[in-house]
Amino acid sequence: MKYLFEVRIKEGHTVEEYAHAWVRASELIQQHPGARGTELRRKIGEPNTLLAIASWDSKADRDAMEAQHSQKIDEIIRSAAPFVGVTPIGEFEEPEWVVKPD
């Protein structure tokens, strides 16, 4: 599973501020069963817009983490909330098959 979010950094703040919070929260989240990594990518031409990607073995694993994650994760997320806007893009299953040109 992939969970995708668009993150927009508000004026007066930096991508690095958000990345610091993202890493701290991700380190805790990645301790949960089924967590398979996270990454941030900058949008071309819009350096204050990021694509956040979280990978999981299954939706059930991520839902379980959401239902029982620690207060520390909540604190980190709340600390970053004032300087970002986060828009969920969607939840995507890993493809059963991939078509690639020869």
UniProtKB/TrEMBL annotation:
Residues 5-64 form the ABM domain. InterPro entries: ABM_dom (IPR007138), Dimeric_a/b-barrel (IPR011008). Keywords: Monooxygenase, Oxidoreductase. The keyword Oxidoreductase applies. This is Antibiotic biosynthesis monooxygenase. GO terms for molecular function: monooxygenase activity. Coiled coil: none annotated. The keyword Mitochondrion does not apply.
